[in-house]
Protein: Mitochondrial import inner membrane translocase subunit TIM50
Organism: Lentinula lateritia
Amino acid sequence: MSSNPRLNLSARIDKRNSQSLDPIYTTISSAPSSYISHPSSHRKLLVLDLNGALLFRPKRYTKAAHDTHGSVRLRVIHPRPYIPSLREYLFHPQTKIWLDTMVWSSAQPPSVKDMVQRCFGDRHGELKAVWARDTLDLDPIAYHKKSITIKDLNKLWKAFPSHSAKTTLLVDDSTQKARLQPWNHIFIKEYGHAERQSDISHLWGSSHPDKKKQDVSDLFDNLTLSPSMSKTSLAPPPSSDAFDSILLAVIGILDAVKHQDNVSGWLKSGGIVLCGAEGMTGGGGGIIGDRWFDTVHIVNWWANKGRAALAELNINEVAGLAANK
C-alpha cells in the first residue's frame, strides 16, 4: 500500500467522535479485520439508501399514488449510472451466497416503493427487506416535514440477529444518518443535479453541442436510466469512464469486503483509502479522509475492481442511460 502523505488518516476531520459511540460498538470496530477465504462463512448485509445514493429525484412531480392517507404525488426519478450492473451483481447467485441486500430510506413508503421499482424492477422481491420513513421512530410532525433522521443499525441487528457491526455495510450519501455506527458506513458522493447534468452532457454533447448550455432538468425530463435498453436507446459514448462511476466503485468495495471478517474494523482502519490509493504518486500534502470519492485515482481504482468483479461473473458493464419509450 502507498505511503503517500496524503493518506494521513489520523488527521482527517473526525465526525466519528468515539466518545459519543456505544462502548460495545467502539470495541468491535476497533478490532482488526482478518481475511477469510470463503465469504459464505461470514455473510454480509448491504443496506442501501435511495435518493442521492442510487438515484436523483428533482423537485418535479410525475404522477400520483394512493395509500391509506390518500393521494401522494411522486417525483421524477433518474437512477444513477450502472444501476443495471449493480442490480445484476447483487442478485447474482454467486453473490447471494454471501450477501443479503436491503433498502433503508428516509422517504415515505409510497415514494420508496416507486424508487425501489425503478432501481430493481421485477427483482425487487429479492431484497431482504425494504424499510422507509415509518421505521425511523419519528413523531408525527417530524414524519411529515423535512427533518434530520438517523439510521440506527442496532434496529437492523435486532430484526436480523445473524448480522452485526462485523457484517453490515450502509451505503449512504449522508454522514449524519450514519453517525451512531460510522464505521459501518460507506460514504458516497451524492448523485444530484450537477452529476446528472454531467452524465447527460457526456451522452449528448458530441451530437448536440448547441444544447450543452441549456438546463438538463428542462431538456431531459423524459430521459432516465432504464433497467434494460429500449428501442430508443442512445448510442454509447466512446468511453464509459465519462459517466459517474461511484456504483462501479461500490461493487469493487463489496467484492473486497466479502473477504473481511470485520467490516467495521476494515473501514475504520482506512481500507477504502489505503487500498484505493495503491500506486498513487506525488504529494500535495492534502488529506483524503472520508471523502475518498473526491480523489479520482481512488474512485478509478475501485471502479476498475468493480469492472473486474462484473467480468468474473459474466455481467455486462451497463451504464443504462436510455431515453424512455
The radius of gyration is 20 Å. The chain has a mean pLDDT of 82.
